[in-house]
Amino acid sequence: MSENVAEAIQRLRKEVAELHQELTRYGLVVWTAGNISARVPGADLMVIKPSGVSYAELAPELMVVTDLEGRLVTDDWAENVAGLKPSSDTAAHAYVYRHLSAVGGQVHTHSTYATAWAARREPIPCVLTMMGDEFGGEIPVGPFALIGDDSIGRGIVETLAQSHSRAVLMANHGVFTIGADAESAVKTAVMCEEVAKTVHLARQLGEPVPIAQADIDRLFDRYQNVYGQ
Amino acid sequence: MSENVAEAIQRLRKEVAELHQELTRYGLVVWTAGNISARVPGADLMVIKPSGVSYAELAPELMVVTDLEGRLVTDDWAENVAGLKPSSDTAAHAYVYRHLSAVGGQVHTHSTYATAWAARREPIPCVLTMMGDEFGGEIPVGPFALIGDDSIGRGIVETLAQSHSRAVLMANHGVFTIGADAESAVKTAVMCEEVAKTVHLARQLGEPVPIAQADIDRLFDRYQNVYGQ
Amino acid sequence: MSENVAEAIQRLRKEVAELHQELTRYGLVVWTAGNISARVPGADLMVIKPSGVSYAELAPELMVVTDLEGRLVTDDWAENVAGLKPSSDTAAHAYVYRHLSAVGGQVHTHSTYATAWAARREPIPCVLTMMGDEFGGEIPVGPFALIGDDSIGRGIVETLAQSHSRAVLMANHGVFTIGADAESAVKTAVMCEEVAKTVHLARQLGEPVPIAQADIDRLFDRYQNVYGQ
Amino acid sequence: MSENVAEAIQRLRKEVAELHQELTRYGLVVWTAGNISARVPGADLMVIKPSGVSYAELAPELMVVTDLEGRLVTDDWAENVAGLKPSSDTAAHAYVYRHLSAVGGQVHTHSTYATAWAARREPIPCVLTMMGDEFGGEIPVGPFALIGDDSIGRGIVETLAQSHSRAVLMANHGVFTIGADAESAVKTAVMCEEVAKTVHLARQLGEPVPIAQADIDRLFDRYQNVYGQ
Fold it and tell me: Which member of A108, C149, C177, D180 lies 3.0 to 4.6 Å from C188 by CB, making a disulfide possible if both were Cys?
């Protein structure tokens, strides 16, 4: 066990615990119904929220380290608190890390407006410039899948493979987002709920005007390559 | 009077007072319009919010101890503040404790989205996996009942008897939830409002896709038996 | 000038200043768009918010004392800060105090859902037990009236004269509430927005079921005479 | 370089940084998606938010000074932090300052309700007295314009030229507001979202009653000339 991995776990425990506060700050979760994970660089490991623990109680040392099959790591160096189980969505996170090597962080929420689109199994159309920037097109809908095996993870991977979007609405369920790291996946989760709400409101009183695909492409290209510091 | 009951009252006064802060944190109540109670284990007693006291002022010593007919306990050991009346919904809570021995805690709110469903006397259909997890089907509607006798309590008990749900929408009134303890009933109240809002939003722009009953049953069974720590 | 009135002004400056924090806490106001006043017992005077001052800056000494014609009191004992003008809605508050002697406090807001009903000039129907409790029937709509003379005040008084409600929706404008004191008027403003929102939501997906007038009367009578401490 | 300009930059760095907290307080922005600028009096310069920096991190020294072509000022006296880029909306702000000499501050947001109107390219009709006060008529819609050249700035200037409103809904994009100073532009952004929401809600259940143009004119004239301290 190299020291680098141990250090990375330490850093990610803190980072993942703190990022959960963004989920409550932006109102994306209630009670314990949402979770964040991060891949441990240089190891087939991930750090994820413990199951059923409230956001107010989350501390770095309560985060759970698993392998990329979602199995609890029981070695001493993982420093897992005895008896603490990982999130019940761990299998989905693990599947995504195994199949998408560029993904360094993931978020799962049932954020209200996005989940309303998911309940109708309807993608969110790209009618806002900030959707062009962030998602490069519509936010797609993945299949209905029950928890308990790989079907949620597979649905996420297959749906995202056909889209610019790093967010997917899983049918009748909620939102999964991916990113180069956990913070980037959190940003996508925040923006997903924001555009889900804005387009919902726009649609309530009529039809939003579509944006031409060429303009969406220009927005997406510029934002991914030029925006920020 | 055994010391154990006195200790339990002490603990529940604190617990019930603190749980009311969750009702304001999740926006389930305004002014003084909602209340929580807990059954005192080993005694025919309950601890409940005082009537008309604001959530900011609630302190453990202001919680009111009554018997399971809803009568104020006037003995010294109950430590009731002189002249403080229990919640005006005490009769309903008391009725439920008398008739459902497994119930250890209850919550009543007029949380906005759930009460909107109640105003139409329309159950919330089970179109979200988290509804399957938490409620095992639709959230049912109880009868229209006036405050003042046992009719609200009876309506709650009779409606919940025919459902997996631990939440009931009382017609034109609001939400009552039950649980093994007060915290569990608070969680159900929080989840009830969340799904009431999500399904409301889903319905505004079309029809949510139903979930097959067999899948709902699988979700409910798993969540009740496997989820959490 | 009796000391009692001076003491009452002192007390009401503090009370009115603090109650404005409830308006922001419940989200009933943005920027400076809402105000509270209180009648000074034993004098033809009122204490009211200064015009255009933000809620974060409100301090007891900034509250303005006027007579019941809405004129700034310039005597030393009023302790008005030099040059600070009363709320632009002062004339309406003053008219109400002159014509309804039982009113001790008033609130004006443009709270969002209630103002949406006011924009359609549509009363809020009594379809919730908590509306029966608090308002004893529908919340009525007053006339369209421009600021600048007595027409807003007159509209409030004439509309409330025909209703159990202590809240009135002024057409295309916003909400005015009255009470025995300022806190009671604030409670009515909070409950008015809450029921405006709940009934709005109920109506979005169908028709709320009406409550029989006899039941509304029973609820109102009980709540006004029995509820609370 | 006169000392006066240096002092003004100092003051505006602080003012602009602090005003961003109002955007989060009123829920007008998520993540980093909104920005404020102020013109530096007596110089062809402006102070604006840095690109992609979160609101929690904004400090006066991170604000960026540019000229009115949107070019970073590299002189020492500007005290720009090395390598920090101005907001990606800088070109639009700069265009407006060049063409509207009375504008001292600007705000850009994607506030949810206003952006929903923008997605339908539908102006917000003036059906509330507070819209008459603040906007003097409807809030107009500007053209669809891509980021990258002067087309957003030109769309803002041309649209506002034909309106009393100091807010414009840019098609499929969001809100831009102007003011004599940055605080005034922030107030307009707050009021724009508030009326966007209220009129949205009013329209959901029917048609708001229009206000006669003569009454709108009276409200606007009075509010611009008489209101406040």
Answer: C177
